[in-house]
């Protein structure tokens, strides 16, 4: 892994000629993303993210923290927050931004800790890659929750990206088990990361998976573009 996403974050934090990230998926054209967006403060965040931060309580785990903007807001408001990411460069940037509890960590290997709130923001559920992995993923998160703990997750239903078929339904290519599964590519400063699996999960599918694994699932808020915030407990 070249850690290009993290490299862009660290370049921005240190003023090392940051450039736009280029992202592309198996169902969409390449798109430029400004790294500055990852450094937004609370007022610049989408309402869904603001709501998730307002609902956060107790000891908090920020999974896939990236540039650490959500964690920073929570820390500044007196919360005990642990921020994890698999990107060494992103974690370095988080430390430089003043986050106190940060570590290079895959949530699937996190042990012996319990949290009152687990945050999976900016489509954090997608990190399980494929729908077939969702049970293992949810059970792991459940094992990290305190008795009255909660998981706050946002995602999108990307069915709107597919063309209508003759029957009035959607035409979905047959090469994936679930239409929300995509292959993601990231490029930065002329380098390209090896493609990786990502998943956008619609609310009904998330709810079914949650209930099947002993978790309640509540729709907290819907965004303006097929996105939503859910709470699992």
Taking the sheet with the most strands, its summary is: 7 strands, mixed
Tell how many strands the DSSP assignment holds: 12
Overall pLDDT score: 93
- How far is it from the N-terminal to the C-terminal residue, by CA? 33 Å
Tell me the strand order in the biggest sheet: 5-4-3-6-7-12-11
Shape summary: globular
Uncertain ranges: none
Give the H and E element order: HEEHEHEHEEHEEEEHEE
Structural class: alpha/beta
* Cα gyration radius (Å): 17 Å
Walkthrough of the structure:
It is built from six helices and twelve strands. It is of the alpha/beta class and 233 residues long. The strands form two sheets. The chain has a seven-stranded mixed beta sheet with strand order 5-4-3-6-7-12-11. Strands 1, 2, 8, 9 and 10 form a five-stranded antiparallel beta sheet that branches.
Features of this protein?
single chain; 233 residues; alpha/beta; seven-stranded mixed beta sheet; 12 strands; 24% helix; 30% strand
Provide a brief overview of the structure.
This protein has helices at 4-14, 47-55, 69-76, 88-96, 134-143, 203-212, and strands spanning 21-25, 28-33, 59-63, 80-85, 102-104, 115-120, 145-156, 181-188, 191-192, 196-199, 217-222, 227-232. The chain has 233 residues and is an alpha/beta fold.
């Amino acid at each position: 892994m070249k850690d290009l996403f993290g490299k862009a974050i660290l370049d921005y934090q240190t003023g090392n000629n940051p450039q736009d990230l280029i992202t592309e998926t198996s169902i969409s054209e390449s798109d430029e993303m400004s790294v500055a967006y990852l450094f937004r403060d609370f007022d610049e965040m989408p309402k869904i993210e603001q709501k998730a931060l307002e609902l956060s309580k107790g000891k908090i785990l920020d999974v896939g923290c990236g540039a650490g903007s959500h964690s920073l807001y929570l820390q500044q408001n007196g919360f005990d927050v642990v921020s994890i990411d698999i990107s060494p460069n992103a974690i370095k940037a988080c430390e430089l931004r003043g986050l106190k509890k940060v570590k290079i960590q895959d949530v699937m290997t996190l042990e012996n800790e319990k949290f009152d709130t687990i945050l999976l923001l900016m489509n954090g559920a997608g990190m399980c890659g494929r729908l077939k992995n969702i049970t293992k993923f949810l059970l792991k998160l459940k094992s990290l929750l305190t008795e009255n703990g909660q998981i706050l997750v946002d995602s999108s239903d990307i069915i709107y990206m597919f063309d209508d078929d003759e029957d009035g339904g959607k035409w979905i290519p047959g090469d994936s088990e679930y239409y929300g599964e995509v292959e993601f590519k990231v490029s930065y400063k002329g380098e390209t990361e090896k493609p990786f699996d990502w998943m956008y999960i619609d609310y009904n599918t998330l709810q079914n998976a949650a209930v099947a694994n002993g978790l309640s699932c509540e729709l907290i808020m819907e965004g303006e573009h097929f996105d939503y915030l859910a709470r699992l407990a």
